[in-house]
Every structure is written in structure tokens, then in C-alpha cells.
């Protein structure tokens, strides 16, 4: 029996040494099976279907939602429960995205790139609708549903870069502020949609009940789906240092080195591809600043410090204010402020908050310190902007033509979610998207710059709790 060694769609080129790789055959065969055998039944999508499902409020997704079905291999009941949970949340999320796209100015939605994204969401919505009013009761049905999930993940693989090109072409018809607000929501919501689908696919491939049918099995020590319960930030930093350093050396002929301080042996539970992307973006900035300021002999210091567990019952303050970190709808793109369409239909407030876990959320703080001269004061207010919104006509034309020679070579590193190498080069998606990944489960990024000296960046992430002490109960 062939051993499949990695959760589906964790495709990062940088974390192979600390994330067990899944063979491409497992992913592509499932996707091809659904397409070639024409098992992906679709229905005609009506405006009523979209309106009905888009009217449902979207509560924040928690890491607890992703691990509640248990550690692989799952039993048949657990695997079916995971499939039905996935089915219960994805249709309304897709409907929200379709409605949000339709609330853009018509001339913007008419752009071929943005129109393609709208069509992709309609296609995925049409493949989910036949399942929306049903319950998955057998392994055979679960396998067919997994094919739908594989199709969804593949269909939306290049959403970020396609949207970037579309908004760049349509920049005359929509303000940079509106573009930024839309992208903040849309890309954050996309994180959750992909994570839900990929989590079930990873559980699907790593579980036993369907082996006789799929002829696949998988060993993933330490993993629950796409979540690594023994994730080592130090190993991610080391590997990202190697990748970013090679590109830096190719561009500049030199490369800084990284020193790791604090607690390099610390481990916590989180999504490795998210942490890898954030660290890559932060090291890119630190390396570039260090080299361009002529300080390449000075190390980039990375300090790793555990975040303490937080128990709500122990979090009382004398002033009565609960300071426990919460997951917000706005952090996950569920508020739909940009579309101005859901505030009246939502039964719960848009600021709805919940703990990443109800009982404990140990995590990590990572400080990245460089001697790269700091950030110019006039630049500080714009570090979280999608920089392409400030392009002039020449820069826009160069980017649309695929000419990035004048851009920073380090931007050639692609981010997670399937967008190809160089597809986002020069578009300034790095930091905004990195912050979205950090904030998605109650973390964050803070930047402190001392102009003329250097920059400290503080990344905090909340984990999934002490997995060894948890009992996983299928609801």
C-alpha cells in the first residue's frame, strides 16, 4: 500500500523538512477522478440561492473547530462528522464572497480577471449546492464529497494574483481605499474557506475507513489534518532563512545570517504553512533592509518566547475588563463591511468575538530585530497598504506586462494558497497578507522602528492548546 506522507495542499516549498510531504499523486488523482468521471454534479445557481445563504451570519472559525474531530486516523463516524461540519459552513461562506463581489461597481466586476474570480465562486457554489440540504452518511458519499473539496481548492488556487491583476487594470474606477477594504475582507475570508476544505481533505487522506476503496493510507505523526501539534518555530525560521538568504545572495551577492535566541526548543500547535509564510515575509524585509544599509555583517536576531496559557476564569482584572484575546469577525473577513450588504441581515453583531479555545491557548511570540536603518517616517503609515494601489501608470503597465526587473527581487517568493512563483512580485501583498494570517486566530504583528538604526517586529500567534490533555468528542 502506498504511503501518503503529507496533508493535502500544504504545498509550501520552504517547510519540507518539518512538514511531512504528501505525494502529488494523492492530490491530483482525487481531483482528476472527480473531473474525468464526471462525478461532480452541479446545479444551476439562482439569485435566491445566493441571497438565502448569504443572509446567514458567519461566526469566527476557531482552531478548536478544526481539531474537534480528533487525531488521525479517524473512525468512520469521526470522518463523516468532519465532512458534515465542512458542508455546514462552506456554502454560506461562498455565498458571502459572491455577494461581496457583486457589490463592487459593475465596471470593476466586468474586468476579465475579477469576472473570472466571480465565475470560479459560482462554479464552486454550484458543486456544493447538491450537497447543501443533505447529510453525508456513508464512506462512498464522503469520497465523492472529498472530490468536490479537491475541486474547490484547485479552482481557487490563484485567486490572489488574479484579483491583483484585475484591480490593477480597474484602478481608474475604484478608489485605493475601497480596494484595500475589499481585499482585506476577501483575502481573510479566503484563508478560512481554504483551511476548512484543506483540513477535511487532510483528514480524508490520513484516515483508515476508506482505504479499501481509495487504496491510500497516510502516517502523519504530530498532525491533526493540516495542524502540526508539535510545530517548532525555530525550525521554520531556520528553513526560511536558507530560502530567503539564497535569493538575497542572488540579488545582492551577500546574505545576512540569523541568530535564534530565547527558547529555540519550544513547540506549539498551529498551521505550519501560515507561520512559514509570515516568517518568510518578515525575513525578506529584514534581509533587504540590512543589506541595502550596508549592515550585512550584523545578524538578524530572532527571539522565540512562549505565550502563556490563558484561562478565562483566571483572567479577571480589577477594572472588570476582560483582556483575553478574542477572534473577531473583522479579523477573519466575515464582517463584509466593504460590500455594505450584510449588516441589516445579520442576527449577531459584526464585532462578535470568541476565544480561539475555551480553556487554554498557549502560543508563541517571535521578535525579529534587524539593524537595517529602520523605516522612514513617511513610510510607516503605509506599511500595511497593498502597495499596487499607489502605482502610477508606468508602474502599473510594467507590472501588468510581467516586467519586475525594477522591483525587489525578494518579492519573487510566492505566498501560500497556490499562487505561482512571481505571480505577486512587486504587488506589495506580503505584509498585509502576513498580518491577515497572524490575526486570523487571535494573534497579531506589531512593528517598532527606530529610524536610522533598525526595526523590531513582534509576531504573536495563539495555538490550539495542550493537545495531549484534550479529549476529542464528535458532536
Model description:
- With 475 residues, the chain is α+β, with helices and mostly antiparallel strands.
- The protein folds into 2 domains: 3-224, Alpha-ketoacid/pyruvate dehydrogenase kinase, N-terminal domain (Butyryl-CoA Dehydrogenase, subunit A, domain 3, Up-down Bundle); 227-469, Heat Shock Protein 90 (2-Layer Sandwich), CATH 3.30.565.
- The chain is 42% helix and 12% strand.
- The protein has a 5-stranded mixed β-sheet, covered by helices on one side. A 3-stranded antiparallel β-sheet has the order 3-4-6.
- A hairpin with a 3-residue loop joins strand 11 (444-450) and strand 12.
- Helix 6 (112-132) crosses helix 8.
- 48% of the residues are buried.
Helix and strand topology:
Blueprint: E1 3-4, H1 24-36, H2 47-54, H3 63-67, H4 76-102, H5 106-109, H6 112-132, H7 139-155, H8 159-169, H9 176-206, H10 211-214, E2 217-218, E3 223-224, E4 227-231, H11 233-252, E5 258-262, E6 268-270, H12 272-292, E7 300-307, E8 327-328, E9 353-354, E10 363-370, H13 393-400, H14 430-439, E11 444-450, E12 454-462
Parallel strand pairs: 1-2, 5-7
Antiparallel strand pairs: 3-4, 4-6, 7-10, 8-9, 10-12, 11-12
Helix pairs in contact: 1-7, 2-4, 4-6, 4-7, 4-9, 6-7, 6-8, 7-9, 9-14, 11-12, 12-14
